[in-house]
Amino acid sequence: MTKEQHQEYLQYLRKWTKDNISATDSEVTKIDKIQDFIMTNFHYANTKVGGYTQTGISVQTPYVFIKDKEAVCQAYAQMFKDMGQLAGLDVYYIQGFGDPYMGADSLHAWNIVKVDGKFYHVDLTWNDTIDKTSKNHTFTLRGNDFMKKTHRWNAVYNISNEDYQGYNRSLPVATQSGTVLRNHAGVALSSQMI
Fold first, then answer.
1. Which Pfam families match (predicted)?
2. Which of 41, 133, 157, 160 is deepest in the core (most CB within 10 A)?
3. Alpha-carbon distance values, 169 to 48, 49, 145, 159 (Å)
């Protein structure tokens, strides 16, 4: 990302944060507003992993979201981190591996964010569904016990082993009625994951 692109990106995030985040919003409300904005307005660049969009921007940089509306996990995680920090959240970028096919480790990036004094995992890429009419929060505010089923990381982070209690992870109505909802990693989301 060039210096000019970085400035344009930050200006975009600052405006959105000013217009949408209130000082009275709880940590969880801020997380939901940010993740829903990203997942509603942008999509995963499935066919361009490691590549570039038609405008020549790397799909790994969050700047590509504001220009081409598509990117990969690195951009999802970086944008969530940047927006979260602007909103006053204690949030970090994590690198590791995602294992959606039980054995085919893929490099992956996601976040940890502090809520009520403890860190939890948030994976927007795996939350983002192909069906943009549905909101999915299956991989939001998860503890290590849940995440280690599908993710691996080597760095030592002080993350809760348990999921954040009281968070509504209910799946969209379409899934509850029998329609299979998949995320961009190919994982079929089900009520057993909640």
1. Transglut_core
2. 160
3. 30, 28, 16, 19
169 vs 22: CA distance, rounded Å: 23
Residue 43 has phi, psi (to 5 degrees) of: -135, 165
pTM of the model: 0.85
| 132-185 per-position pLDDT tens digit | 666 788 899 999 999 998 898 887 788 999 999 988 776 554 444 444 445 545
Both tokens of residue 147? 């995440």
Tell me which residue has tokens 């990117």: 71
CATH of 3-153, one of 1.10.760.10, 2.40.50.140, 3.40.50.720, 3.10.620.30: 3.10.620.30
Residue pair 20/37 in contact by the 8 Å Cβ criterion = yes
CA distance 53 to 68: 7
